[in-house]
Amino acid sequence: MSAWTERPELGAYMARQRWYGEAVEEVTITEVRELAWLAEPASGVGVRFEIVVAGAPYSVPLSYRAQPREDLSYGFIGAVALDGEVLYVYDAMHDPEARAILLRGFLDDADSPADISYVSLEGAPIAADAESVLMSVEQSNTSVIVGDVLVKFFRRLEYGRNPDIEVQAALTRLGSEEISPLYGWISSGDVDLAMAGAYQRSATDGWDSARASIRALQADDVRARDAGGDFAGESERLGAALAAVHAQMREALPTGVWSRPDVEALVGRLEARLDRAMALDPAVRDFSARARAAYAAIDPDTPVPVQRIHGDFHLGQTLRTTTGWKIIDFEGEPAQALEDRVRLDAGARDVAGMLRSLDYAAHSVAITSAGLAAGSDDQAHVDDWVRRNRVAFLRGYGYESSEAAAALLHAYEIDKAVYEFIYESHYRPDWVEIPLHALHRLL
User: Can you list the domains of the chain with their CATH numbers?
Assistant: First the structure.
């Protein structure tokens, strides 16, 4: 048991981080597993991974210094007595020298401690003297750029192979051109701590690109079908990219077929999410009967081919590069348990995720400008853009809509809107009307 479990500083620091994911003033720590030193404090800076159990296990790499550093103040956690010496402790992600020590195992893992392994598929092209840059966007993980390499340090951990590593390793070995190649990862026993892959330096985020298209149409006061350079062509190419990745996943990873008990279990999961949304806001009750009817329309006697899927597919998980679309972040929904994130599912779930994301991107622009007033010119532009891009994406994917397939896709779209409602209720109440409007349209 670490002395950190008896001090408030680390818990208070974690409570302020977005990657912790819960709005609390202080985190209650029940256990700390201190991995072996990657660098001893006597060398000038002590660095090690520490697995902090606070409800769930979290990775908090720390650096220990004999003197305080004002330039590292953003990542300062507290002071601790270690072997009779007072050391100043920092989040290693905010300490450039510590980051270099965390990464040097990719250059030569011979000196790495026994409880940490650095695995390389082809060797991460990290130069020994390369400077690392901490990405400023706070997410559920912490990412660092080192030259042309993006290293993602996982924060909330799951015991077992991280799905992002598992899927991207399989697709990298296949030579997929629709993902950023995986170079390697860092693990300790049965838990993965980080992964390294190609950094798409010239890429444009899909979410930003779609929203820019909407804003351009608003500025020019034209409808999407009248604009020669609208986003529909990109949506079609993105659909083709997802179809290619799904085919590659079927080749490299497990597949199966759902029968009646599996479909009934799916409906149970959809209804459980709907119940959680109803508990948050009585407004959802207005949709509940129609949503349950849509779920019941899934034919349990029609076999459903299933496979590993992305699991959290939206525009923010895509990059537009000079060579085409790249799909990233195969972790699945971060808040879900590992068993749920690796469960085989229908490819229609990913399709529904992107259809909702296209709709979401368009309405997020409207809600931050003129609102979502029914019948307004702005709303007409948005609806027209969504229809065009929806059709284009499905065409690019090659989606074949039988009655059974249409019912399944419809159910997944409703479920995604319910998920969005729950998320916005917790984190962004001003946007709740976007999924509520979607439920109106879908039901």
Answer: 3-92 (no CATH), 98-198 (3.30.200), 204-442 (3.90.1200.10)
